[in-house]
Amino acid sequence: MLVVLLGAVAPAAAQPAATDPLARARQLYNSGKYDEAVSAAREAAARPGARPEASLLLGRALLERHRASRAPEDLVDGRAALRGVAAAGLDDRGRVDLVVGLGEALYLDGQYRSAAAMLEPVLEQMGLLAPEGREQVLDWWATAMDRHAQTRGPDERPAIYHDISDRLSRHLARYPDSAAASYWLPASALARGDLELAWDLAVAGWVRSTLAPGAGVTLRADLDRLVTTALIPERVKRMVDEPDAGSASARFTAEWDEAKGRWK
Hints:
The chain folds into two domains: about 1-150, Serine Threonine Protein Phosphatase 5, Tetratricopeptide repeat (Alpha Horseshoe), CATH 1.25.40; about 155-264, no CATH class. The chain has helices at about 20-30, 35-45, 50-70, 70-85, 90-110, 110-120, 130-150, 155-175, 180-190, 195-210, 215-240, 245-260. The two termini are about 25 Å apart. It is elongated. By secondary structure, it is an all-alpha fold.
C-alpha cells in the first residue's frame, strides 16, 4: 500500500528540519522511517504549541509501523495518540490528515464499514492531498466497502457495489489517472455479477493505465490478475452451452491477451 504523505506543518513550526523535531518527524514520516519519526514526534510533543501536530504525526507513524510489523501495541498507542489530538489546533490540511488517520485506525481494527464512513468525506476533499495520498485514501475506502459487503447477505451486496461504482466513477471524472478507480470499477462490476460490464471496464482500465503513475505497471498487473483468476472463471461458469470449460477459458484468455496486446 501507499502511504498518505502528511502536509506541511504550521508556519510557527517552519524551522529547518535539522533543528525542529516536528519538521524532522514529518520529514522522517514521509520518508518511511517510522521508528525515527515516532521518536522525533514524541520529542516535538514536549514543545509548547507543537502538541496537536506532533500527536498527529505520532499517531500516523505508529499506525504505519503497525502495518509493517503487526505489533499490536503500535496500533493501541497510535489510536491513543490520535484520540488525544486537539483538532482545533490544526489547519484544514491537518484536520484532513487526522480524519485519514482515524479512518486508517478503524480499517486496521477491522471496523470496515466505520472506516469507510470516516474516509468518505475525505473523498470530497481530495484536492488537499497529493496524488499518492488520493490513491491511498480511495483504495482504503473501496477496500473497506468491499470487505464490509462480504459480511452482508447476497441480496444486500449489489447495492453496496453500486454505491462503490458510483463514487469511483465520479472520482475518475476528476482524476482520470486514478489507478485505484480503474481497478475497483471492474472489480465492483464483477462482484455484483455484471460480467460483461466488468470485462469492458477491465479493458478500459488497461488502456487508461497509460495515464497512471509509474506507467501503470502495478495497475496492469492487478487488472490482469482480476481478469485471469476471477473474471474469466466466472464467465466460463455462465456458459451453459459450452461443454468444454477448458476450451472456453482458453478462448477468453486469448481475447484478453489480444486486447492487452493492442495497448502494450
